[in-house]
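Subgroup meeting minutes
Present: P.N., E.W., G.H.
Scribe: E.W.

1. P.N. recapped why we're keeping a running log of single-chain structure predictions: easier to compare across weeks, and new members can see raw inputs and outputs side by side.
2. G.H. added today's entry (285 aa).
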Amino acid sequence: MSGLIGTGSTPVNQQGPDGSEAGRTPAPSRPAGRAVNRLSAVLIGLIVPAALLVAWHISTETGYFSPAELQSPRAVGTAAVELLNRGELLNHILISTQRVLIGFLAGAALGVVFGALLGLSRIADLLLTPTVGAIRAVPSLAWVPLLILWIGINEDSKVTLILIGAFFPVFTTLYLGLRHVDRNLVEAGRAFGLKGIRLLTTVQLPAVVPALFSGLRLALAQSWLFLVAAELIASSMGLGFLLIDSQNNGRVDRILLAIILLAVIGKTTDALLGLAERWAVRRWA
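Output recorded in log:
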């Protein structure tokens, strides 16, 4: 029969005028497929925030929560517009973002240095790991009085506290990752004449890229957490200051605004770091 082969019923792939197979829908290109998948993931991820927003609106409009307990989304939006018109909101956002980025970058750099040192050197591991572990157990707020005494009430003390928060996740993940690198890879690198920094950058660091970026993303989240504690140090600007000042003045709308901004900006910076992670994994892992 025409269009059939043998005794089966599988249609023969017929050629169209342009040389493509007739009767078959062409598969989407790989970049287009990835774009569709990412868009689907974003839309699915927005379901819960949208549901929470609707529940928040309903609970405040129906009187389930009083204004002293929970302000409505409309009131929070009004507070945001008010601060924008006064030129304060953007300053709060920029100063907090600046503090987080400086502290995060400095803490991550130190975490990489010490993580590599203790992860590659047995002597440094035995000498320093107990001390670093003890320092890591100190709560963030416990550093505030010392930082004020040692550094003073200025930007340096705030950035230093954020640096401390960013240091330990990077240090821990890189240290543990390097301790568990496949010894066969290291020996193969040495067989090709690699040693020291070249061995680290060519063999060992590429092997721990996923672990390193996990530590960096944890460090970035920790930096935003430490920001609020940092802005307790006699701050007059920043989202942490806005949060604390609004609490003192009973401005629930501004408290919610500060929390939402911290969540949105924190998620945005994490997403940007996620893009860098995907690039690094494709490049080195």
